[in-house]
Amino acid sequence: MIHLKARLRTAYNYAHSRWGDSIYNIGIIPFPHDLPNTAKLPPVKWLRHSYTDRWFADPFIVDADDTTFTIFVETYFYGVRKGAIGRIKASREDFRLLEYNTILELPTHLSFPAWFKRNGEIYVYPENSRSGRLNLYRYDAAADRLIAVDILADEPLTDAVIIPLADKRFITATTSTDPNGDVCSILAGGGDGEPFAPLTTLRMTDNTARGAGLPFEHNGTLYRPAQVCNGAYGIGVALQAVTEAPDGAPALDERCRYMVYDKRYNAGFHTFNRFGDTVVVDGYYYPTGPGTTLFKYLQKLFFKA
Length: 305
Prior knowledge:
The chain contains two helices and 20 strands. By secondary structure, the chain is mostly beta strands. The longest helix has 18 residues, at 2-19.
């Protein structure tokens, strides 16, 4: 009986995830070099893949050559309705998936695999707010997996990114108590093996506090991508200039924003990660039809979600 219930739950999860909830994909665009004056982002080339039991979001390009991109992603598995961190290799020409492997899976949800490189090694600090903290992992390329090495912050942070500023490092993030709101938390420290600690908060003009990708420099300005979450989660991306406030902490000033513009993935996009002359993004849509209404009703009836 226990096994039957587990199978039924898995089957329901799969059906709900595929026909009753948002469906994501990742894509690439050329980097718009006339930022922040670009009126509209270029058309997206979406990842071509044949998986029917998962979707991909929160992409971060970590390497590239003349023919391929290597990308860390959130992989959301329909049967368990939970994210893991995966590694994708995709072709440059047609952005077709060539190779996939799950490199980190935990009992709690994982997403947003932000990363940095130190001494030739890649370190990843994915979103795992349900664990109550922000953990740091080293990517073991030979084993193709992430290995836990440290704790970056003892805080339930969502979509955190490390911001380098004036020879110091800060973390900008929201917290699990209000992940899509207008309050951006600033953490400082992180030296000598000590975790980052809360320093201050910034209140944005609207719900654009949550991170959307790694900071990048362009024409002498450091930009922080942020999610636009007004009325819904991740409906667009704002680019915020990072400057130093009088107290030495980061200040954020929005310079431009881009709302969803793709006809298929028309509900929103919430990732903007630059890698050289390429930007990797994501997008999502909601299935339509009688099945969507049915699954929403069943979800509310049986699982109170």
